[in-house]
Amino acid sequence: MSKKIFSGVQPTGNLHLGNYLGAIKNFVDLNNDNQNECIFCVVDLHAITVKQDKDQLTNNIRETAATFIASGIDPSKSIIFNQSKVHAHAEGSWILSCMAPMGWLNRMTQFKEKAGKDKEKASVGLYIYPILMASDILLYDATHVPVGEDQKQHLELTRDIAQKFNKDFDCEDFLRVPEPLIKKNFSRIMSLKDGLKKMSKSDPSDLSRINLTDTKDEIINKIKKAKTDSLPIPNEYQKLKDRLEAKNLLGIYSSISDQTLDKTIDEFEGKNFSDLKSQLAEVLLSKISPISDEIKKLVNDQNYLDKVLVEGANKAEEIAGKKIKEMKKIIGF
Ligand code: TYM
Description:
Layout (H helix, E strand, L loop, with lengths): L3 E6 L7 H16 L4 E6 L1 H4 L6 H18 L7 E4 L5 H10 L4 H5 L2 H7 L8 H15 L5 E3 L5 H17 L10 E3 L34 H10 L18 H13 L4 H8 L4 H27 L2 H30 L2
Parallel strand pairs: 1-2, 2-3, 4-5
Helix pairs in contact: 3-12, 4-7, 4-13, 7-8, 9-12, 10-11, 10-12
Bound molecules: ligand 1.
């Protein structure tokens, strides 16, 4: 069956191995399947929910597009564009925010985490951001949305909003209810320093993550310094239950090598972490360094990146513009 794929990544700099294994690597596989229609969005309207430096934001938009392309997304097959170029996203977001009850938004755990203790000072945009995300997805009739585990709740909200709109306006199936595509076992890559924390661009310690633009030496050094424990690697995955950092490194190795966790356990059973770490560094260098080199090359070719983004926005506008028109007609505008 052909799938309509939509997903987005925020241009906030420091895209890391978690973004790659949880999302972008899957975008590439979906792009490579000729049956799919794929749209990958640099969600710059999402980025301004927290303060951004103007020039940095412009650079980060290009760098995120460069990362998509460097990872293997082909702009002649998939649409790559930045969200702020297509008006319908913001317009759809307003309409849907008038349909979604506050109670649904109050349940969003990511807002609670991001806003922290000082909720009163967080922007209203940060609070309603999941509705903008719903608008992104629903405007394109996406059937499948590849994301990491941390976006699961937002996708459930998207599904609820679509169903409520269809019911409220008696327009069954107008908004397509999308399915999440979340890779089992590899959808939550953890910090290299703390197995309880997600790998994240906002972690103050750069040693907690592998950035997609890290040099070879930085990758080797970060893997060397990654937290582990003193026990050897067991013969069954279940025995790793409470060994979070060990589990994370084995998961990263499996995911980047495209093999099952069981196969990785077989490969390393009884060995020490130093063996796993040296093999992991090697495979990361072979997979991530070429991407990193390509990102650095592409960001120097601004004209090319801007051309990809403009062409992508024109194609996206055609699809989303039509949908928002129909949506407004249904409402009575
Ligand atoms: P963002 O920009 O925070 O992250 C981009 C993608 O990377 C995944 N990810 C991870 N996966 C595994 N382990 C991690 N440690 C990790 N960190 C990040 C995220 O799950 C995500 O898939 N709201 C979204 C962007 C968005 C979007 C959309 C996604 C806006 N509109 C429509 C899908 C569809 C976000 O902030 O992702």
